[in-house]
Amino acid sequence: MDPDDKLKSIRERIDAIDSQLLDLISERARCAQEVAEVKLEASQSEDASPIFYRPEREAQVLRAIQERNRGPLASDYMASIFREIMSSCLALEQPLSVAYLGPEGTYSQAAALKHFGQSAIPMGQASIYKVFRQVEERQCDYGVVPVENSTEGMVGQTLDCFLESPLQISGEIELPVVHHLLAGEQVDLDSIQLVLGHEQALGQCRQWLDSHLPDVPREAVASNGEAARRAVGEAGVAAIAGALAAQLHDLQTVASAIQDSSTNTTRFLVLGRESVPPSGHDKTSLLVSARNRPGALLGLLRPFEENGISLTRIDSRPSKTEKWTYVFYIECEGHLADEVMTEVMGQIEEHSIMLKRLGSYPRAPI
């Protein structure tokens, strides 16, 4: 068969498949509308607000997609496609407003879009504290805050906010961090006079900056989004930020992927007001304050070992109530609804002066 005829035949098949996909996606959207109607009716009879977004349900669907995927598209790509379909369908039920650490173009915004999809309404905030407040005061449905970077460690401000906040963790997001050196038009590497970036971004690009711009001053700013905003209007200024910031602020990429570690990843937590039922692949986060005596930390950790529960993270923060006393942030596998976790929580309370359950939530599916 002639190549042009082959291409015509393949394109006709693609058009037919696209038509089928359109019909199926529309049918799925109509199902989402029916779900919304059922929830509204149930809430009216129970005199309660309907819950449209179910983190555990979305995580289960995305995992099932990945498990059933046979290629040639990678499972993560396939899950991302379905995430957008689910986001659009959820918007038919109730568009979600999501607070994130702004301004526009930050990795926090990218994380929010990755988790909630393009149909969510992102609302940038000036600080992590304000993200918490927006969700607590019901100005936003959910919030997204950074909690840990693979090279720079834990984000202390996020852990400190949890000490005072009643919010629950509803999910987690893992976002590969690829830093670019961005600048306005007519700016090249030799004409850069100042490099701006969040303090962690500057730290994550230290080796590259030392090698390529050793004599150029560096200034830490509140966020990479703020760095990108300033780079637009200030001559000779370059910003360390991601691809989203370049797109939103129409900046050119002077140098790509300048982070020192190729595996640089930031983990974010999703803040909500309700606890999340088990999804089958869950994590639990806790804040624990130990008694100031020898072996106190060992007493907190032993119940996990004795009950076969794997710890995924442990970190400490000053308690801010008494000098040289600390609060431990602990993450483990499992859900607070599990019988074994109930037993472990009881044992930990015997060895602590404070135990705060921050919530159980699905492990990041993509």
Structure summarized in a few sentences:
The chain has 366 residues and is an alpha/beta fold. The chain is built from twelve helices and 15 strands. It folds into four domains: 3-92, Chorismate mutase (Chorismate Mutase Domain, subunit A, Up-down Bundle); 96-176 and 265-272, D-Maltodextrin-Binding Protein, domain 2 (3-Layer(aba) Sandwich), CATH 3.40.190; 180-255, Periplasmic binding protein-like II (D-Maltodextrin-Binding Protein, domain 2, 3-Layer(aba) Sandwich); 282-362, Alpha-Beta Plaits (2-Layer Sandwich), CATH 3.30.70.260.
The total of helices stands at 12
Structural class assignment = alpha/beta
Order of helices and strands: HHHEHEHEEHEEEHHEHEHEEEHEEHE
* The CATH topology of the largest domain: Chorismate Mutase Domain, subunit A
Q: Given the C-alpha coordinates, what overall shape results?
A: globular
CATH architecture of the largest domain: Up-down Bundle
The low-confidence runs, each spanning 5 or more residues with pLDDT under 50, are: none
Helical residue percent band: 40-55%
Overall residue-averaged pLDDT value = 90
Number of domains: 4
Q: Could you tell me the number of beta strands? A: 15
Report Rg: 23 Å
Distance from N terminus to C terminus (CA atoms, Å) equals 42 Å
How much strand?
Answer: 25-35%
Main pleated-sheet profile: 6 strands, mixed
Main CATH class of the largest domain: Mainly Alpha
Query: CATH homologous superfamily of the largest domain, by name?
Result: Chorismate mutase
Question: Which properties best describe this structure?
Answer:
single chain; 6-stranded mixed sheet; Chorismate Mutase Domain, subunit A; 4 domains; 5-stranded mixed sheet; D-Maltodextrin-Binding Protein, domain 2
